[in-house]
Specification:
Blueprint lengths: L7 H10 L6 H10 L6 E3 L2 E3 L2 H11 L10
Antiparallel strand pairs: 1-2
């Protein structure tokens, strides 16, 4: 059974498993300044959903490119 909610540490690992760099501290910073994946609070704990993380990753990826000149 796939987990429905992920802790911040698990969320960073989830993104890294996709082959992309992501640190727990980066998610914490984005939660403060904005620009990160959507999250919810459960008491004092921050939780993420796999779907929300996938959406955030896809929004941050550029279109495929064949050259760095453009």
């Amino acid at each position: 059974m796939e987990k429905q909610f992920l802790t911040r540490r698990e969320a960073a690992a989830f993104v890294r498993e996709m082959g992309l760099p992501c640190a727990t501290a980066t998610l914490a910073k984005f939660a403060t300044i904005g620009g990160g994946p959507s999250f919810q609070k459960f008491g004092r704990n921050v939780i993420y959903t796999p779907a929300g993380l996938c959406k955030w990753v896809s929004e941050r990826l550029s279109a495929p490119k064949s050259s760095t000149a453009t």
